[in-house]
Amino acid sequence: MKKTLTMIAALVAAASAQEPQTFLQKALNPDISLIVDVAYVERNLDDHEVSHLEVPAIAHGLIGSHSHGEQSHATYNAANGFNLNYGELGVRSEVDPNFTLDGVFHFSEENVEIEEAYFTTTALPYGLRLKGGKFFSDFGRHNNSHHHAWNFADAPLVYDAFLGSHGLNEKGAQLQWVAPTELYVMVGIELLQGENEQMFGIGEIEHDLNDTTTIEVVEAADAPALTVAYVKSSFDIGATTILGGVSYAKGDSRLDHLEDEEPHAFYGESELYGAELTLKHYLGSYRSLSFESELLYRDMDGIQYDGETSATVAMVKKQAGGYAQFVYAHDQNWRAGVRYDNLFKNDVTANGTRLDKPEGLERYSVMAEYNPSEFSRIRLQYSVNEALYDDEEGQKDVKTLILQFNYAIGAHGAHAF
């Protein structure tokens, strides 16, 4: 027995000498997942017509394929008929006891992009957490969720209109602090590059000034040019979970759309305010009823240049909108929901004169989905969009039926509540 114990002790000592007591990254295989989203779409308008519609004084190209200069871009569910929306490859693993590393790679038929690539600390004291790289901002409720985690096949109208289909997806750094209290309170601040194509931007802009021979150069903004801050809290009352928060973003705007069909550019400063409320009431182990709502208000102040007339005007935009949705989960397999969108404020002033722009722009959506398992989803959605106008500012009802299929394989982390 003594001889056996001596041999075991010698083996342990030898193993310790060969393998020091440190973190062994090679012992951990990264979590790798692939998500594919396809859809069949039927609209009452053809693809060419719908791609030219806009929300007056707010956004254009919300549906269909369009281009910005040499870059082409297609929204989700862009065309009538069959759509391959994307393939999403995700990789995640611990780096060491102090960091995790995440990468999300987005594949479409046109291109491949790094949607997210960031590190996150895991061992900072005092309830602190640091994130750095490229990631979705935690502004608001909807912004930081990936498409496959959405409750509907498309983003809320106010997010699409103010921030584009990708939202605030930026390079930068994020610092969050969770208060050491029984009530969950999280405070966050982010310093981001500021390259959102719909509202923020940092690039240099060159344009003709009043004639074709004089060129005005708008210098690039000093990066990082976007600051985001937010406070969020959550608590339970019986079988109901309540989550609320407020968010704020401020940054430079350099929006260069001079290569668009209707060439224009905007440069100045922009602010975005957000308020969110989510309630989820549990009716059983798998049955639940959830309510989610957000309000966004933006203030854009600067100079707008018209590429067709070479005119510049002092432009102020004060616009607001929001959405409210109910989703009922009957069991592990079946869910249904309704959503109401409204852009209710559209105050635009050019050189001190208020322009007559439509307000109360609405969209109505209903969906039903069947989830054969946690890795697959079949969703049917119907929407009526009354917020879009043609080139002559004539309002168009866009009615859309979407049959969506979403499938996932591999190890994929759980989504946030």
Structural account:
The chain has three helices and 23 strands. The protein is mainly beta. It has a single domain, classed as Porin (Beta Barrel). The strands form four sheets. It has a 16-stranded antiparallel beta barrel. Strand 2 and strand 3 (59-60) form a beta hairpin. The longest helix is centred in the N-terminal third of the chain and has 17 residues, at 2-18. The radius of gyration is 25 Å and the shape is globular. The N and C termini lie far apart (56 Å).
Please write the string of helix (H) and strand (E) elements.
HEHEEEEEEEEHEEEEEEEEEEEEEE
- Unreliable spans: 1-21
How would you sum up the global shape?
Answer: globular
User: What would you report as the Rg, rounded to the nearest angstrom?
Assistant: 25 Å
Helix content: under 10%
Number of domains: 1
Strand percentage, roughly? over 45%
Q: How many DSSP helices? A: 3
The strand line-up of the biggest sheet is 1-6-7-8-9-10-11-14-15-16-17-18-19-21-22-23
Could you name the CATH topology? Porin
Instruction: Say which CATH homologous superfamily is assigned.
Output: Porin
What can be said about the biggest beta sheet? Answer: 16 strands, antiparallel, barrel
Mean pLDDT across the residues is: 89
CATH architecture: Beta Barrel
Number of strands: 23
Which structural class matches the secondary elements? mainly beta
What is the terminal-to-terminal distance?
A: 56 Å
Instruction: Determine and state the CATH class.
Output: Mainly Beta
List keywords for this structure.
417 residues; mainly beta; Porin; 16-stranded antiparallel β-barrel; 23 strands; globular; disordered N terminus
